[in-house]
């Protein structure tokens, strides 16, 4: 039996809808991307083989720079405002509404409470270029303990992460861990990069 030859037909695809979809996806990703904010503390973190992911919200970060300067950061503005109010009541330092608004916008800070008003008076650009002295962690003036306890009190679901520079003195990180353990906080994350 002879083979039947099927006549070929030219197929035309309209790619207009595909191009529209590509541009819609591109626009969506551009508009929904949350850019990483500038970090207050410059920390070169060590590497490890752990693959545990950091929580993306309700995170309290204690950063320790190479020179031992300690910074404390909270990602929720409402928690930051409640913490500032608690510290204001405890240390009898009043903050104006504008200063409270400025503090709510700061992701992390590294200054004693007594000099916080002068830091808040600076512009955002001046604050980013300023080398802060660090949150006090010594036994005589342990403000980090107060900040952490107020953060936990105002956001009990918050997670604590310690982000220490790989070249910092281990005694500073050990002191931060001791401050957490004094408050019965024995579960926290150590921030590292994945070792390849």
In words, what does this structure look like?
With 196 residues, this protein is α/β, with parallel strands linked by helices. It has one domain. It has 7 helices and 7 strands. A 5-stranded mixed sheet has the order 4-3-2-5-6. It has a two-stranded parallel sheet with strand order 1-7. It is elongated. It starts with 15 loop residues before the first helix and ends with a strand.
Number of beta-strand segments: 7
Q: Summarize the helix and strand pattern as letters.
A: HEEEHHEHHHEHEE
The shape is elongated
Spatial sequence of strands, sheet with the most strands: 4-3-2-5-6
Number of helices: 7
Q: Using only CA atoms, what is the Rg?
A: 25 Å
* Distance, first to last CA: 65 Å
Number of domains: 1
Blueprint of the fold:
Layout lengths: L15 H17 L14 E2 L10 E6 L5 E5 L2 H15 L5 H9 L2 E2 L6 H5 L3 H6 L13 H12 L4 E6 L5 H13 L6 E2 L2 E2 L2
Helix pairs in contact: 2-3, 2-6
Labels describing this entry:
single chain; alpha/beta; five-stranded mixed sheet; 39% helix
Give a short overview.
With 196 residues, the protein is of the alpha/beta class.
């Amino acid at each position: 039996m002879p083979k039947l030859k099927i006549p070929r037909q030219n197929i035309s695809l309209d790619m207009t809808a595909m191009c529209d979809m590509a541009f819609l996806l591109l626009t969506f990703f551009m508009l929904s991307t949350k850019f990483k904010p500038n970090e207050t503390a410059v920390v070169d973190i060590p590497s490890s083989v752990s693959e545990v992911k950091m929580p993306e919200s309700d995170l309290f970060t204690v950063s320790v720079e190479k020179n031992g300067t300690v910074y404390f950061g909270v990602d929720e503005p409402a928690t930051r405002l409640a913490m500032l109010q608690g510290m204001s009541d405890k240390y009898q330092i009043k903050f104006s509404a504008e200063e409270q608004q400025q503090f709510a916008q700061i992701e992390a800070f590294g200054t004693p409470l007594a000099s916080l008003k002068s830091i808040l008076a600076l512009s955002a650009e001046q604050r980013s270029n300023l080398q802060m002295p660090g949150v006090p962690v010594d036994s005589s003036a342990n403000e980090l303990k107060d900040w952490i306890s107020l953060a936990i009190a105002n956001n009990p679901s918050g997670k604590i992460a310690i982000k220490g520079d790989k070249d910092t003195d281990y005694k500073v990180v050990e002191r931060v861990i001791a401050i957490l353990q004094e408050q019965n906080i024995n579960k926290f994350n150590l921030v590292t990069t994945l070792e390849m």
